[in-house]
Structures are given as structure tokens and as C-alpha cells.
Automatic annotation (TrEMBL):
Substrate binds at residues 53-55, 66, 95-96, 121-123, 126, 173. Its EC number is 5.3.1.28. This is Phosphoheptose isomerase. It comes from Allorhodopirellula solitaria. GO terms for biological process: carbohydrate metabolic process; D-glycero-D-manno-heptose 7-phosphate biosynthetic process. It is found in: Cytoplasm.
Amino acid sequence: MPSELSPNFRDYMQRGMDLRHSFSPPLLDLIDAAGRAVTRSLAMGGRVYFFGNGGSAADAQHLAAELSGRFKTERRPLPGLALTTDSSAVTAIANDYGYESVFERQLRAFAQPCDIAIGISTSGNSPNVVRGLEAAGEMGLATMAWTAQAGGRCAEIADIAIRVPSTSTELVQEIHAAIGHYICHRVDDVFTDRADSIPVLREVTGKAVSMSELLALREFWREAGVRMVWTNGCFDLLHAGHLQSLQYAREAGDVLVVGLNTDASIATLKGPSRPINRQENRVSVLAGLDAVSYVVLMDELDPCSTLDQLRPDFHCKGADYRDVPDAKIPEKAIVERHGGKVIYAPLAAGLSTTAIAEQLAEGQCSSV
Ligand SMILES: O=C(CO)[C@@H](O)[C@H](O)[C@H](O)[C@H](O)COP(=O)(O)O
Ligand SMILES: [Zn+2]
């Protein structure tokens, strides 16, 4: 460091460097989890709300603008919003309901459960930030608090609490901005609108998704030119034939989504003695396969309405459907109407869940 710097400034810079070096692996993991949580919300069609007071209000605006504008790479605009910027809303709510309501009331006006709320407070106890996080949690949003070491009430109530290990307000604020920039890097990695960002995205979303999350992902894939393959079934007793057809389906496009029949729909389709494995176990087994990109539970007896919404590029059926009349594959016309194609996976001879289940029931234990 140049010698003409004042001792105070030297000390300040040194404390900043020491603070960065003091980050423990669990804290770094938590910051990474924050990046994944924000990316997940954005990929699922959610918004990111930032709020705080004073310097933290500036951080909120700064980071929201990195999302709606640009960070480092060219990508689509993303919905980051600071709840500190609408002076009419802030002053009216403060005037009419009290300053502690300024973030809460805006969240109650705009937020949806797929969104994420980030409250920034060095004390961790500013009432308006606490109230904002409480309201967001009540509304089902993911919540995050960025605080100093003590954490305060904000850290107690947030899903993810990042306590910067310092009591110095200004140093803590600088780290908050750095955390925000790290998150922006993470977001840029996924929203490059290129197919090779898909594995990064799946790492943050996990494989088991709800139908509404899948619909948001589908929009994302469409814009990124990612080809989606769909297949559906019960996948009750997984056998080699399933693996082969899933592999075939996966190779037809960029992501393979498996629509997995719920327990209730299988009982309706195949009788009350099925399924053998409950849906949460069937989801886990499928999610463990490399070929499967995403799993979504499906309650309908046929996938027509689901495919009408998802509009997959490919819909994979078993080869035994190749020569049946179109009327037996009612979803075929729907897929084709949206520009998709039905493909047929070769069948592995002699392998079927029903045959295995029947053999077991009859006490025949010959290998299939
Ligand atoms: O920027 C600074 C101090 O560096 C100040 O403006 C500071 O943000 C304000 O005093 C805030 O009101 C502090 O609120 P909080 O961080 O405790 O929630
Ligand atoms: Zn400041």
C-alpha cells in the first residue's frame, strides 16, 4: 500500500481485507445457496424484491438494476425490483400506516409465492425490514436476510440468513454489495439463453418440479432454443426396459421431462392394488437417473391438457404405439398441432411392470 495513505485509511482497508479472508466455508456455502435461491426463483418465473434503509436502500436499487438492466453478459431483462424507489408509495404508506409498513404493504400488493424477498439490514432489526420479511414469509415467498454478525430479528425469520462476521456497518454494507454481485454472476451463468446453461439451471432447480414451475421453465427453454422431450407413465417397478426408453427419449432432445402418474391416477388406471411404490419413492428413483432431466407429478389419466400447455418438441411413446390408430393416442394431434413430433422408443422384449408384479403375486420368482 502507498506510504502516503493515512493510518486510518490503511486500517480501514486492512480490516476490509481481513473480513473477506475470515469467511468460513459454511458462510461461503450460504452465499452460494443465496445465488441458487435467486436463480431458482427467476427461472421459475418469479421476481426478486430487495429492500432496506439508507445505504441498504442504495444496495437494493443497485442490485435490482443489475437484474432488469445488465450485469456482465448479454441476457434477457430479469425482474429485480427495489421497494425503496417509489417515493409516492413509500411516503403515502409511511404517512398513512407508519414507516414500518412501507415494504410490507408493497409486498402484499405485488408479490407471488414464486418470488423471493431480500431484506438488507446491518442491525437486522429495522422494523420495516422485519415486517417486510414477515409478510413475505406469510405469503409463501422464499426469504433472505443480509445482516451483520448479530443477525437480529431479520436473521431469525428468514429462510436464508447471511450474517457478515463483523460489527462494522460500513464494512458489512460493502460485503452485502459483494454478495449481490456474486448472485448476479450466478444469474448470468444461467440466463445466457444458451442450451449449455441447462445443467447449471437444473443444479439450482432440482429435478422434481411442480407443473407451474415446469411451465415457467418451458418458457425459459423455448427462448433459449432448448428442445424439450416429454414422456409419461407410472414407472412403478423400474426395469431395464424403462431405462432404455428413457435414454432413447433423452437423446432425442436437450431436456427430458417425465410426467409421472400420481398414486391416485394409477389406482384409477390399473386397479386398487397399484402402485406398488408410492409416488414420492417413484419420483426419487426417476430423479436419480442421468437420462431424466425433470420429473413432474401428473394426476390426469392422459397427458392431453398437460401437453397442450407444455407444447413439447417431442413426445416419446413406446414402439407398441407406432401402428395403433391415432384415436388411441389422443395427445398426438395436440403435440403435432403445436409443431411437435411423436417419437417411438424401441421396446425391450419381455419386460413389463405388470408382468413382474403378476409373477411376484403368483410366487414365481424366475428372472425376467
Ligand atoms: O449507509 C449507512 C451507514 O453506512 C446508513 O445510511 C445506514 O444505512 C442507515 O443508518 C440505516 O438506517 C441503517 O439501517 P439498518 O442497516 O440497521 O437496517
Ligand atoms: Zn453507508
